[in-house]
Design a protein that fits this description.
Distance between the termini: 49 Å
Radius of gyration: 20 Å
Shape: globular
Helix content: over 70%
Order of helices and strands: HHHHHHHHH
Length: about 230
């Protein structure tokens, strides 16, 4: 009976409610993304056909590679550091943002340099470039790291849900007007931009000031050593 009482007490605690609410929001966001993506993907794939849809997926796969490169393996490390040292968030977030932005720019420049030597047509190159540009906006995910550290996922989940729904509406509209393939790539990058802007706004309004962020070279080397 005492064990049951302890469980009931734990469930009623503020900590449990906070983490349960946070997890519920994350699950809701994931389910929304899966449902909307499934429905819109089927609709868009039917319109584009095998060739164009395959080409779009090829461009997205290249973009995914550059996204992983730009991430630098910092996610769990930065979240951990923010949990352990919230007072130092301006240095942690500022340095992480600078690192990820630099990596994304290097990746984009690297592809632009290599593109002329690849046996790809102009349309394929443009598709890849447009989607890779989106990695620049995905560097703003560092602001989501702080929401995770503060167990406040409901802010960022709302931003991501709005972006997913917005991109879905955009792509359905593109099918309706019979748009060219290039516009579907633009819609993907636009969604990434919207998410980045939303995460930045949430951080500025709810958690801290963008103008207080700072870059620390010594801390950058520490992060690189940890993420290696």
């Amino acid at each position: 009976m005492r064990a049951v009482a302890d469980i009931k007490k734990a469930i009623k605690s503020d900590g449990f409610r906070k983490y349960f609410s946070n997890t519920s929001w994350m699950l809701l966001g994931r389910l929304c993304q899966m449902a909307v993506t499934f429905l819109v993907t089927a609709y868009v794939a039917r319109y584009l056909g095998k060739a164009d849809y395959g080409l779009l997926n090829y461009a997205r796969s290249i973009g995914t590679f550059f996204t992983m490169f730009a991430a630098l393996g910092l996610h769990s490390i930065v979240v951990r550091n923010l949990v352990d040292n919230d007072a130092d968030k301006d240095r942690i977030i500022g340095t992480s943002l600078a690192m990820r932005t630099g990596a994304a720019v290097l990746g984009l420049v690297g592809y632009l340099v290599a593109a002329p030597f690849l046996s790809q047509d102009a349309q394929t190159n443009w598709l890849i470039i447009i989607i890779v540009v989106g990695t620049l906006f995905q560097t703003l995910d560092v602001f989501d790291f702080y929401s995770q550290a503060k167990v406040a996922a409901h802010y960022t989940v709302k931003v991501r849900m709005a972006s997913i729904i917005g991109m879905a509406i955009m792509q359905v509209a593109l099918v309706y007007v019979e748009a060219d393939l290039i516009w579907f790539a633009i819609s993907i990058t636009a969604s990434t931009l919207f998410i980045g802007a939303g995460l930045t706004t949430v951080y500025q309004v709810k958690f801290g000031s963008l103008f207080k962020m700072k870059f620390d070279k010594a801390y950058m080397m520490e992060l690189l050593k940890d993420s290696w």
